[in-house]
Design a protein that fits this description.
globular; five-stranded mixed sheet; two-stranded parallel ribbon; 51% helix; 266 residues
Length: 266
Protein backbone atom coordinates (compact mmCIF):
# COMPACT_ATOMS: atom_id res chain seq x y z
CA UNK A 1 0.00 0.00 0.00
CA UNK A 2 2.86 2.37 0.87
CA UNK A 3 4.63 1.60 -2.41
CA UNK A 4 1.48 2.34 -4.41
CA UNK A 5 1.04 5.64 -2.59
CA UNK A 6 4.65 6.58 -3.26
CA UNK A 7 4.36 5.70 -6.97
CA UNK A 8 1.13 7.67 -7.22
CA UNK A 9 2.80 10.67 -5.53
CA UNK A 10 5.80 10.39 -7.89
CA UNK A 11 3.54 10.29 -10.95
CA UNK A 12 1.66 13.30 -9.61
CA UNK A 13 4.92 15.23 -9.17
CA UNK A 14 6.04 14.35 -12.71
CA UNK A 15 2.72 15.51 -14.11
CA UNK A 16 2.91 18.76 -12.12
CA UNK A 17 6.44 19.46 -13.33
CA UNK A 18 5.43 18.72 -16.91
CA UNK A 19 2.53 21.17 -16.74
CA UNK A 20 4.73 23.77 -15.02
CA UNK A 21 7.43 23.44 -17.70
CA UNK A 22 4.79 23.75 -20.42
CA UNK A 23 3.37 26.93 -18.87
CA UNK A 24 6.82 28.53 -18.45
CA UNK A 25 7.80 27.65 -22.02
CA UNK A 26 4.59 29.08 -23.45
CA UNK A 27 4.85 32.26 -21.38
CA UNK A 28 8.33 32.70 -22.83
CA UNK A 29 6.93 32.33 -26.32
CA UNK A 30 4.17 34.83 -25.53
CA UNK A 31 6.83 37.33 -24.51
CA UNK A 32 8.33 36.83 -27.98
CA UNK A 33 4.88 37.40 -29.50
CA UNK A 34 4.50 40.80 -27.81
CA UNK A 35 8.07 41.76 -28.73
CA UNK A 36 7.46 40.99 -32.42
CA UNK A 37 4.05 42.70 -32.26
CA UNK A 38 5.73 45.81 -30.78
CA UNK A 39 8.24 45.82 -33.65
CA UNK A 40 5.27 45.59 -36.01
CA UNK A 41 3.72 48.69 -34.43
CA UNK A 42 7.01 50.56 -34.77
CA UNK A 43 7.20 49.57 -38.44
CA UNK A 44 3.60 50.72 -38.90
CA UNK A 45 4.27 54.12 -37.32
CA UNK A 46 7.39 54.42 -39.50
CA UNK A 47 5.21 53.87 -42.60
CA UNK A 48 6.98 50.61 -43.42
CA UNK A 49 3.70 48.91 -44.15
CA UNK A 50 4.98 45.81 -45.95
CA UNK A 51 7.43 45.07 -43.13
CA UNK A 52 4.64 45.63 -40.58
CA UNK A 53 2.40 43.14 -42.41
CA UNK A 54 5.16 40.53 -42.48
CA UNK A 55 5.86 41.03 -38.78
CA UNK A 56 2.14 40.61 -38.03
CA UNK A 57 2.19 37.31 -39.94
CA UNK A 58 5.21 36.16 -37.93
CA UNK A 59 3.57 37.22 -34.66
CA UNK A 60 0.41 35.29 -35.66
CA UNK A 61 2.43 32.10 -36.18
CA UNK A 62 4.12 32.65 -32.84
CA UNK A 63 0.73 33.09 -31.12
CA UNK A 64 -0.41 29.67 -32.25
CA UNK A 65 2.92 28.10 -31.30
CA UNK A 66 2.75 29.76 -27.87
CA UNK A 67 -0.76 28.37 -27.33
CA UNK A 68 0.37 24.87 -28.25
CA UNK A 69 -1.45 24.78 -31.57
CA UNK A 70 0.09 23.01 -34.55
CA UNK A 71 -1.06 24.13 -38.00
CA UNK A 72 -1.24 21.94 -41.08
CA UNK A 73 -2.14 23.45 -44.45
CA UNK A 74 -2.79 20.86 -47.12
CA UNK A 75 -4.74 20.19 -50.28
CA UNK A 76 -4.42 22.22 -53.43
CA UNK A 77 -1.73 24.54 -52.06
CA UNK A 78 -0.68 25.67 -55.50
CA UNK A 79 -4.21 26.91 -56.12
CA UNK A 80 -3.88 29.71 -53.60
CA UNK A 81 -0.14 30.32 -53.85
CA UNK A 82 -0.20 30.55 -57.62
CA UNK A 83 -0.57 34.17 -58.71
CA UNK A 84 -2.90 34.70 -61.62
CA UNK A 85 -4.90 37.51 -63.11
CA UNK A 86 -8.17 36.06 -61.82
CA UNK A 87 -9.09 37.09 -58.30
CA UNK A 88 -10.23 34.59 -55.67
CA UNK A 89 -12.78 34.49 -52.91
CA UNK A 90 -11.88 31.91 -50.25
CA UNK A 91 -14.60 30.43 -48.07
CA UNK A 92 -14.02 28.71 -44.74
CA UNK A 93 -16.05 27.27 -41.88
CA UNK A 94 -15.28 29.69 -39.05
CA UNK A 95 -15.58 27.71 -35.81
CA UNK A 96 -12.69 28.82 -33.61
CA UNK A 97 -11.47 32.21 -32.30
CA UNK A 98 -7.90 31.31 -33.34
CA UNK A 99 -8.78 31.02 -37.04
CA UNK A 100 -7.60 34.55 -37.83
CA UNK A 101 -4.06 33.75 -36.66
CA UNK A 102 -3.92 30.85 -39.12
CA UNK A 103 -5.24 33.06 -41.94
CA UNK A 104 -2.80 35.89 -41.22
CA UNK A 105 0.16 33.73 -40.23
CA UNK A 106 0.00 30.89 -42.75
CA UNK A 107 -2.32 31.76 -45.64
CA UNK A 108 -1.41 35.47 -45.52
CA UNK A 109 -4.55 36.46 -47.37
CA UNK A 110 -6.74 39.39 -46.24
CA UNK A 111 -10.01 38.42 -44.60
CA UNK A 112 -13.39 39.82 -43.63
CA UNK A 113 -13.35 39.59 -39.84
CA UNK A 114 -14.88 40.77 -36.56
CA UNK A 115 -11.64 40.15 -34.64
CA UNK A 116 -11.07 43.85 -34.09
CA UNK A 117 -13.94 43.85 -31.59
CA UNK A 118 -12.07 41.74 -29.03
CA UNK A 119 -8.38 41.21 -29.93
CA UNK A 120 -7.66 44.85 -29.13
CA UNK A 121 -7.91 43.82 -25.46
CA UNK A 122 -4.69 41.82 -25.90
CA UNK A 123 -2.95 43.55 -28.80
CA UNK A 124 -3.04 47.37 -28.66
CA UNK A 125 -4.17 49.06 -31.90
CA UNK A 126 -4.92 45.66 -33.40
CA UNK A 127 -7.50 47.13 -35.78
CA UNK A 128 -4.85 49.37 -37.36
CA UNK A 129 -2.43 46.45 -37.65
CA UNK A 130 -5.03 44.18 -39.22
CA UNK A 131 -6.23 46.87 -41.62
CA UNK A 132 -2.65 47.44 -42.75
CA UNK A 133 -2.44 43.73 -43.62
CA UNK A 134 -5.56 44.09 -45.77
CA UNK A 135 -8.16 42.69 -43.38
CA UNK A 136 -11.62 44.22 -43.46
CA UNK A 137 -12.90 44.74 -39.92
CA UNK A 138 -16.59 44.91 -39.14
CA UNK A 139 -19.16 44.66 -36.40
CA UNK A 140 -21.51 41.83 -37.40
CA UNK A 141 -24.17 43.13 -35.01
CA UNK A 142 -24.58 46.39 -36.96
CA UNK A 143 -26.26 46.27 -40.41
CA UNK A 144 -24.49 49.46 -41.53
CA UNK A 145 -21.10 47.98 -40.65
CA UNK A 146 -21.92 44.77 -42.55
CA UNK A 147 -22.93 46.69 -45.69
CA UNK A 148 -19.86 48.90 -45.49
CA UNK A 149 -17.63 45.84 -45.05
CA UNK A 150 -18.82 44.34 -48.35
CA UNK A 151 -17.85 47.53 -50.19
CA UNK A 152 -14.44 47.61 -48.51
CA UNK A 153 -13.99 43.90 -49.26
CA UNK A 154 -14.46 44.73 -52.93
CA UNK A 155 -11.57 47.19 -52.70
CA UNK A 156 -9.43 44.51 -51.06
CA UNK A 157 -10.18 42.00 -53.84
CA UNK A 158 -9.21 44.64 -56.38
CA UNK A 159 -5.97 45.48 -54.55
CA UNK A 160 -4.81 42.08 -53.26
CA UNK A 161 -6.48 39.72 -55.70
CA UNK A 162 -8.35 37.78 -53.05
CA UNK A 163 -10.07 37.71 -49.68
CA UNK A 164 -11.09 35.08 -47.12
CA UNK A 165 -14.74 35.08 -46.02
CA UNK A 166 -16.62 33.00 -43.44
CA UNK A 167 -20.10 32.56 -44.96
CA UNK A 168 -21.58 31.80 -41.54
CA UNK A 169 -20.49 35.27 -40.44
CA UNK A 170 -20.16 34.52 -36.72
CA UNK A 171 -18.51 31.99 -34.44
CA UNK A 172 -21.84 31.30 -32.80
CA UNK A 173 -23.62 30.52 -36.06
CA UNK A 174 -22.87 27.29 -37.91
CA UNK A 175 -22.30 27.29 -41.65
CA UNK A 176 -25.21 24.81 -41.76
CA UNK A 177 -27.45 27.51 -40.28
CA UNK A 178 -26.41 30.49 -42.37
CA UNK A 179 -24.55 31.14 -45.63
CA UNK A 180 -24.06 34.80 -46.49
CA UNK A 181 -24.25 35.79 -50.16
CA UNK A 182 -21.30 38.22 -49.74
CA UNK A 183 -18.88 35.86 -51.47
CA UNK A 184 -21.28 35.39 -54.37
CA UNK A 185 -21.76 39.15 -54.75
CA UNK A 186 -17.99 39.76 -54.78
CA UNK A 187 -17.37 36.88 -57.19
CA UNK A 188 -20.00 38.23 -59.58
CA UNK A 189 -18.58 41.76 -59.41
CA UNK A 190 -14.95 40.75 -59.95
CA UNK A 191 -15.47 37.54 -61.95
CA UNK A 192 -13.57 35.73 -59.20
CA UNK A 193 -13.04 32.06 -58.51
CA UNK A 194 -14.71 30.82 -55.32
CA UNK A 195 -12.40 28.43 -53.49
CA UNK A 196 -13.55 26.48 -50.40
CA UNK A 197 -11.26 25.83 -47.43
CA UNK A 198 -12.17 23.36 -44.71
CA UNK A 199 -10.86 23.94 -41.17
CA UNK A 200 -10.83 21.03 -38.72
CA UNK A 201 -9.65 21.00 -35.11
CA UNK A 202 -8.11 18.47 -32.74
CA UNK A 203 -7.93 18.99 -28.94
CA UNK A 204 -9.00 22.59 -29.39
CA UNK A 205 -12.45 22.78 -27.84
CA UNK A 206 -13.21 26.33 -26.69
CA UNK A 207 -16.53 26.89 -24.87
CA UNK A 208 -18.92 29.29 -26.57
CA UNK A 209 -18.95 31.53 -23.50
CA UNK A 210 -15.20 32.15 -24.01
CA UNK A 211 -15.34 32.92 -27.75
CA UNK A 212 -14.97 36.66 -27.32
CA UNK A 213 -12.71 36.63 -24.25
CA UNK A 214 -9.12 36.29 -25.55
CA UNK A 215 -7.51 36.59 -22.12
CA UNK A 216 -9.51 33.61 -20.84
CA UNK A 217 -8.62 31.58 -23.94
CA UNK A 218 -4.96 32.45 -23.46
CA UNK A 219 -4.98 31.46 -19.78
CA UNK A 220 -6.71 28.13 -20.49
CA UNK A 221 -4.35 27.26 -23.34
CA UNK A 222 -1.15 27.76 -21.30
CA UNK A 223 -1.36 24.38 -19.47
CA UNK A 224 -3.39 22.60 -22.17
CA UNK A 225 -2.05 19.67 -24.24
CA UNK A 226 -1.01 20.12 -27.86
CA UNK A 227 -3.77 20.90 -30.34
CA UNK A 228 -4.01 21.06 -34.10
CA UNK A 229 -5.81 23.08 -36.76
CA UNK A 230 -5.86 21.55 -40.21
CA UNK A 231 -6.70 23.72 -43.20
CA UNK A 232 -7.58 21.81 -46.33
CA UNK A 233 -7.70 24.03 -49.42
CA UNK A 234 -9.90 22.88 -52.24
CA UNK A 235 -10.38 23.89 -55.85
CA UNK A 236 -13.05 26.12 -57.31
CA UNK A 237 -14.39 23.04 -59.12
CA UNK A 238 -15.05 21.35 -55.77
CA UNK A 239 -17.91 23.74 -55.11
CA UNK A 240 -20.92 23.01 -57.26
CA UNK A 241 -21.98 26.65 -57.58
CA UNK A 242 -24.99 27.57 -59.73
CA UNK A 243 -24.21 29.02 -63.15
CA UNK A 244 -26.46 31.97 -62.38
CA UNK A 245 -24.67 34.29 -59.93
CA UNK A 246 -28.07 35.63 -58.85
CA UNK A 247 -29.09 32.23 -57.48
CA UNK A 248 -28.39 32.79 -53.79
CA UNK A 249 -30.40 29.79 -52.65
CA UNK A 250 -28.47 27.52 -55.03
CA UNK A 251 -25.22 28.96 -53.67
CA UNK A 252 -26.32 28.26 -50.09
CA UNK A 253 -27.13 24.65 -50.93
CA UNK A 254 -23.80 24.17 -52.75
CA UNK A 255 -21.76 25.58 -49.86
CA UNK A 256 -23.57 23.57 -47.20
CA UNK A 257 -23.32 20.37 -49.28
CA UNK A 258 -19.55 20.85 -49.65
CA UNK A 259 -18.92 21.39 -45.94
CA UNK A 260 -21.25 18.58 -44.96
CA UNK A 261 -19.26 16.23 -47.20
CA UNK A 262 -15.94 17.47 -45.77
CA UNK A 263 -17.18 17.07 -42.22
CA UNK A 264 -18.34 13.52 -42.85
CA UNK A 265 -15.05 12.50 -44.48
CA UNK A 266 -12.81 14.20 -41.90
Amino acid sequence: MGLKTMLSWTDGCKYFLLILARIIFRIGLLCSVFFVYSLQLIALVSQKKILASRLLAFASRLVLHALGVQVVVCGQAGEYLNKSSQSRIYLYNHQNPLDLFLIQGYLQIPSLTTAGLHLGLVFPWFSLSASNAGHVLMNHREPLSRRSAVHRASDVVRKYGGIVIAPNGSLKTSIFQRVSASALILARKHQSLIIPCFFSYSNLEIPEKDFYHPLIILAKRLPAPLAKIKCRIGLSADLDCPADFRDREGFRRAVQAYYREQQESD
